[in-house]
Amino acid sequence: MNVSLYIARRYLFSKKSTNAINVISGISVVGVAVATMALVVTLSVFNGFHDLVASFLTSFDPQLKVTPVKGKTMAADDPVLTKIRELPQVDVATECMEDQALAVYDGHQAMVTVKGVDDNFDELTHIGEILLGDGTFELHAADLHYGIPGIRLAEALGTGYKYDRPLKIFAPRREGQLDMTAPEEAFIEDELYSPGVLFSVRQAKYDKSYIITSLGFARRIFEQQGMVSSLELRLKPGSDIDAVKQEMQQIADGKCYVKDRFEQQDETFRIMKIEKLIAYIFLTFILVVACFNIIGSLSMLIIDKKDDVVTLRNLGASDSLITRIFLFEGRMISALGAVIGIAVGLLLCWLQQAFGIVKLGSSSGAFVINAYPVSVHPEDVLIVFVTVLAVGFLAVWYPVRYFSRRLLH
What we know:
Distance between the termini: 28 Å
Strand content: 15-25%
Radius of gyration: 32 Å
Oligomer: single chain
Shape: elongated
Low-confidence stretches: none
Order of helices and strands: HHEEHEEHEEEEHEEEHEHEEHEHHHHH
Number of strands: 15
Number of helices: 13
């Protein structure tokens, strides 16, 4: 039996001679529990937003995207792209040409990103799930090329779900100098027609500036015949994305980037990770402050148990054993607060998931979702538990040794 742990447990749950010690000990447990609960809930909310954003991106972004390291484009028949396209794990491969242009419609204009894609783009992504309108996903018909704008871009241009007149697209010529006396000659002009739909990814990056059209239209207006800006891929079900990605990187040999969905949105997810880290650091500081209550509780307990310490020494207890008693006392307060805080935090997360208690706003439909999203990750719960124990141990280590030394000498 661990004598110091046994005695510490008795001290923690037994009634003290001074009732204030019990009160302060209870306050210490509650303080640690509240800080722990805040950590669990806050990190879970950040996870919820992370998973929510990721779910939106899967409707538009491919599983893997291959882009050139140098320049904006590369030849569609480049041997690297051919080898990647022919890998047995690849189910769908779509050539894309993407660049910026000027869109003009009925007196409104906006800088847009024209994304030309193959006809199998709807097989590559879940684009069909985010289309709005009474039309279907079409890119061209005979000599007509269709353009599917994002919902916020359609609002800015005033096109609505279906625009009756052609949408004019202007792109600068790749060669030659700009003649200010005839600026129209420095641009290539073409027209897009409406298939009766637009898309809504619920991400401003896409909804506000993207137009999806045919690959042939994009190559013509950007003067990039036979070129691609990216090769977008979907793998066969059951494929190991990380393993395939590594194999593609070996094939590319530094000539191309191979990015998964999260790397394609690296800036967005990096910001979210930084925000989550900052929240974790600030709440840990609050936890440190809560642990000062433990120091006060232990200080009063050491004074209260002065006679017990003398008795233990007379029975042959060493100074280190007596010190460990109060160290275990502080650790148990931290551990008890951690367990209670995690349990309450998980309960609150479940209630939020099940009933959406905390709303994002009072106006229904003003946000993508009505309540704060929550996603509990086991690794975060483990990190919180370890953090609470570590902070509790470090907070009581020096004060216990100091007061014990004063008491024993």
